[in-house]
Specification:
There is one protein chain. This protein is α/β, with parallel strands linked by helices and 340 residues long. It has two domains: 214 residues, Periplasmic binding protein-like II (D-Maltodextrin-Binding Protein, domain 2), CATH 3.40.190; 94 residues, D-Maltodextrin-Binding Protein, domain 2. It has 14 helices and ten strands. The strands form two sheets. Strands 2-1-3-10-4 form a five-stranded mixed sheet, with helices on both faces. It is globular, with a radius of gyration of 20 Å.
Length: 340
Amino acid sequence: MSNHSHHVTHSRRSALQILAVTAGTWGLGGPILSPAFAQTAAKASASAKAPELLRIGYQKSAANLVILKQQGALEKRFAHSKVSWIEFPAGPQLLEALSVGSLEFGLTGDSPPVFAQAAGKDLVYVGAEPPKPDSSAILVLKDSPLKTLADLKGKKVALQKGSSAHYLLVAAVEKAGLQWADIQPIYLTPADARAAFERKSVDAWAIWDPFYSATELQIQARALSTGRGLSSNNSFYLASRSFATQHAEAVVALFEELTRADRFVQENRPQAIKLISEFSGLDAGVVSLFLQRRPPSPVGPLAASTQKDQQKVADAFLKLGLIPKAVQVADIVWTAPRKA
């Protein structure tokens, strides 16, 4: 075997070992990866060809990515790559950019990848964080007469089309014993939805953190329901298929850095609040509440239970005719390359 072949085989073997460790940690729900993981990931990353470009799509809700951005961690880890950060108001816009080749990697909630897959976009799920059911809610103003989900009948509900809030509302309508046609969905970006909500142009708003926390604290909005019992509110890391295929070791290194960022959030809460607040312009109290509702969020490959959850999301949208065709989530779940 030539030195080059041996090097490639070793790199791939390292990546597979790391993914096996991550998958095991993930299955147990452990928030901290072992030092051995860190060392192996570092070796695999160092021995792999670095991507020339690493363009990362993120949102204000992406705590792990925001921490890495603020600390300059990926610029250090990928010293020979041009790392750039592009912020998006929500997942659908982020995945559109990913699908047209403007990004390599990004984070969204559960619904955007379903709409993207149904539209034939060429992207793959590479990783996930644990469920965050308390981090999203259907909000009403404090003086609203609405008391239960059933009270949404005939009402205008603001939401970002194709976002995690879309599935949250679908699940809420079903739980209330209503039909989708019983409500009036008003599709707005989070900023426009907040304005419409405050001026009472809509009766309710399906939204996620940190917008949820900001609205709750600033105008004393109340939650008609959180995601608990409705939606797991999973967060997914997606990549272009070409990036995931050509840079498996970089994906593994990203998992490790993201998990380290999460550990920083858990163990250094005041500093994490300061970094996220400085980035987002959000009040420290808002960031604190947002992080309180967010469980430890290490990053690893998609567990079987997460894939099953995501298939439920896809099937719910198909049933309502909100996506044009059935999709199998498993078809676009990335796995590490195997030895030839």
